[in-house]
Queue: 2 jobs
Job 1
Amino acid sequence: MIIGFRTTVEGVLLTCLKLRQLPDAQLMFAEDLEELQRKIDFAGLETDLELVGFESAASTTELIARVFGKHWNRHVKFSRRKEPDPIHFIDLVLRHADCDPSELVRTLSLSEDVPSLFSGKMQLQKRCYRCMREVNLSYQRLCMFARPAFVRGILTVDIKPEHRIEDMFCRWLARKNPDLPVAVVHGDKAWIGNGHFVGLDRFIVVTSLFMGNLEAMNVSDEVEELWDVYYDSQMIDSRRNKKHAKKFQPKAASSVSGMSMKDRYKVERGISPCKLGDFFEI
Amino acid sequence: MSYVKTPNEAHKTLTERMRYLASGTKYDSCNQSAVCHAFAPDGRCIQLYKTLLTNYCSGECTYCPNRCERDTPRVSLSPDEVVKITWSFYRRNAVEGLFLSSGVIGDAENTSEKQLEVARKLRAQGFQGYIHMRLMPGTPKYLLEEIADVANKFGVNAETTSSINYSEVCPNFDYTNDVLQRLKWTKELIIEKRKEVGYGGRIIGANDTQFVVGAADESDRDIVHTVNKFMDKYDLRRPYFMSFDPVADTPLEHNTPSPQWREVRLYQTSYLLKDYGLKAKDLDEIYTDKGFLKDQDPKILLAQSNAEIFPIDINNASQQELLLVPGIGPVSASRIMQSRPINCEQELARMGVVITRARPYIKIKGRCQTNLSAFMEACS
Ligand code: SF4
């Protein structure tokens, strides 16, 4: 018996419930039915196939309660560390570049309760937890260090995340700037938030070529110089703590934008105390 | 309200004025526990655009570079300029909001009105970022009420621990009326605002104040007791400390700077009050005879002064007892409570316990797992 499931939170939860009933079933996953069909054809499988998560409209909160019991969100409420709830946990793991959704389903079906996902003793639980942390970290780094700029009136940022978090980041940016259209560009795709300002859906994915044709109001943007001045003014020389600063402004994460790269350079090299302009000051 | 430039600032560009005024707030902490966007080379995070509205001041605080008698370039930013810079940084995702302080422009009322003008303009333009305002001692109640409508966090600096000390360092203001009374009003306003249903989804921060450490003669014990009192009485959640650094051409220019570690140890001690449920009197053993903190982790000092309760059994101890163990924080303590029984140190390490610190103070399944070197390491 093969369970073919869709790689969505809903699909994962439904498959987890199914796997508890049929623990010997094999798992196969895909983003849509065509991909699943291709995989089945490629593997030449001829066993029974049960499709899960491709049509259902079940609520994720109901499903998670069936998987972990009605107190599923208790752990998150009482945990002092800001852990994501299990629905968000699954979503984050699915976004990992090396995520194996079958492994995630098995982990969930073997976990009796939510705390074991976080302080898991099994190897599988630890692996999923690590994936969740890595995705969360790279999302947080984007929120910290990405520096969008106005491109024809759209607050636009070009990113190259390791995991599939472009839409998450776009929603965050749109929430932060609810009065403007925002765009997150990765390769040849662009995720547009608050698209209604430019005659599109509120949230939509387009090609970056299409984005190039969009017009909105023009807003001038001459901020980098001011930022440099501000950044330099905040440094307390007698308290310089290179190790600490380097830890928080890591090299890899800072390459997310030119502005944070410059900040990182100053963390590394310090801020020059003497600039040409200083000679002309009182 | 019209904005008047002082005569000697007319020739300064926006960038120059911005630099002066931003460096005037570089010692202020603005932690709002949201997204940090950059880290300065000293390791402190940058979350907000921190600035003074002006460094012109009619006050004579003895430690302050902006005191009126000091000969220093005076500059100001107009409310519109602050609004513009805040927007620009915010749009570039370089900050989460604004931290606004100021020198006293005439009197507290006038100054707070200008600060309010900035916040109002931002909100009127749809700004949804964080606004933190450091207000002047003596800000009238009606203005505090209006500020509470637009700011996420606001407060008056206490600077020190008593009226006598305060009158020495800030001779223009009255501690009881201008500071404590304002802290009380701020607390009441915060409670009121939090009760308002659907308050625009805006975060309302806790009461906020800052101490200048080392400008007056107060001991660390006095500071910690004052913080504790403020937490109980004014719902202060987190105090800020700023080390005194003598500034040339001020009455305290020849005083000794407060060592950097003192500020750090005070922060650590304040966390014991904030996150560990301890009271100032529980910490009375950790000070020197003169009431100052030593340059050692206060939690380790506390554990050493209560040596008779250790080692505690990790599987039977209450959460409060676990919190007394060096290397175990509130998060790891609650994880331990949830994951019992604990069988070995590795399990504790996975929960975030710093084993090298905790080892001498705990036993697992009846066994102490310490040795002399671990103990010495934990003591050092
Ligand atoms: S009121 Fe503020 S700015 Fe003015 S002297 Fe005192 S501390 Fe300095």
Job 2
Amino acid sequence: MSQQLIQSDVALSAEETRQIDAELAHMPQKSGAAIDALKIVQRHRGWVSDESLIAIARYLEMSPETLEGVATFYNLIYRKPVGKKVVLFCDSVSCWICGCDGVKQKITEKLGVDYGETTADNQYTLIPVPCLGACDKAPVMMVGDDLHTHLDNEKIDQIFAGKLSDGEGS
Amino acid sequence: MENSLREKVLTRNIGPDLVPADMESYEANGGYKALHKVMSGMSPNDCLEVIKASNLRGRGGAGFPTGMKWSFVPMGDKCSPGHKYLVCNADEMEPGTFKDRLLMECDPHQLIEGMILAAYTIQADRSYIFIRGEYLVAIERLEQALADCYKRGYLGNNILGSGYDLEMHVHTSAGRYICGEETALINALEGKRANPRAKPPFPQVSGLWGRPTIVNNVETLCNISHIIDKGAEWFQSLGIGEDSGTKMFGASGHVKNPGCWELPMGTPIREILEKYAGGMADGRKLKGFLPGGGSTDFLVEEHLDLPMDYGSIGSAGSRMGTGTMIILDDKTCPVGMVLNLLRFFAHESCGFCTPCREGLPWTRQVLEDIESGRGRKEDLETLVRQVKYIGAIGNTHCALAPGAMEPLQSALKYFQSDFDAHVEQGCCPYTQGERV
Ligand SMILES: Cc1cc2nc3c(=O)[nH]c(=O)nc-3n(C[C@H](O)[C@H](O)[C@H](O)COP(=O)(O)O)c2cc1C
Ligand code: SF4
Ligand code: FES
């Protein structure tokens, strides 16, 4: 963790603290809400910056180092900025058998990004995700909150052309 | 779910249209009958005895007898004052597994009723549904169902006037396969890095925040209300062979009709693959299959007539695991498939112990070399050694690493000629290396 973040602090918004408090009500210890708090702040701010992390740690009475250790452990806590929507692309076994490698290549061509990268217009960040529990409809991915199934090149064109509104593709 | 003769238990509210059951439709179909029955006169011990007698075994992969697990929780005077916890394991990240999602999305109340009854049996006052964050639809429906239960007096203080109190909460995870391991899950719920804990102490005695805790799989818990309602003997009679009840079985890969079906425990594999999955897709032949998720050993054609139950699949050298089969066809490279799995396991290693943290990436590297045509004969011997050391129970802190070795060790056994061909031809005979 870098030096300067020890000083800076971006206070949690009223809405963020309200949502974190709701989680705290279900936990006998404040640190129990660490992951919830990280996810709440991420939902509001898109990602978890060093400043956000410090603010959360302070609120939960944890050391920033401990919270950083928690944040970096989990795949879905973003410690770098991401695009407006995250594309969670399943690259696990059933999707692989059903040809997800080809679909991934198509996405990379279409959006011009590889895993971990964000499109130039800041719309999408592409991230691999383990099995999404929809293996009978492989290959699959999530774009934002929506699951898209039975992916092929044509579907990728539709989904990212904005011709299909999200969700209809599944 | 086309077979009308089959008794539907877990999926009785799940039709082909997948419309979720709300409180009204759940109750109209006998839902919360078991809860009323228990709250108006069954003791926790009565419930425990029924579950024990039913011979229900955990559906999360290991098949541990549920009643026995619950019986380790200290009760009454033997328990020091404080909370007790019941946790539903809804992490479902085992590659190739897609059964719990369906149960939660389409019938959330069935899970909640099972959880209330399980919590009552061990006299837990707090319960959590630990669910992976990507299951947004399931999360929303479970939260709605919980709110409806609080309104109805099925949760909260003095449930149905019985004097029993229970809080229930949905915790969404942030994505890490190891969170599904029950002691890692407990750490995750406490807001920590999800490294597995040493056992003993077992969670039943000292789990969440040091208090007695039971962790059960979604499907396991979905069975509870039915067993309480209809009895242990009825439940036993549902299974065809030695195991009780029904099971969610599934098939993915190149079959005609991939999907998930509730069938009697002990249904022959061939019946699942041919009758329900519709056989292999056109132009493809069966080469092998993982019977219950990515961390189970391959089985092959000669095993098709085995019944899907814990004992039979175990004697054949594999595990029934989650019961959702991953089908390998003759046009898909077995080395590539095992490499895909090893990439997953290496990535998801929690890093706590060396054989897993260092060993799995090494195994992945060797497989990458072989698949891309850079493999040498010695590499095959290296794989055998890795299986021996990383796969041995006791060499690692938890079961992730041995699980990771299961598909590899059985692939080496059944598909040896494919490994050899990669080395001899200097490329993948299936794709000429395209896929790596
Ligand atoms: C690496 C690993 C991942 C696991 N993931 C899950 C999971 O996602 N869901 C689950 O129910 N059990 C999972 N398990 C098994 C749990 O540790 C535990 O045995 C299970 O939740 C107990 O429930 P049951 O007795 O009802 O089967 C996993 C085990 C290991 C070693
Ligand atoms: S076997 Fe792997 S996942 Fe399990 S504790 Fe060791 S490093 Fe972590
Ligand atoms: S492997 Fe992609 S959804 Fe299961």
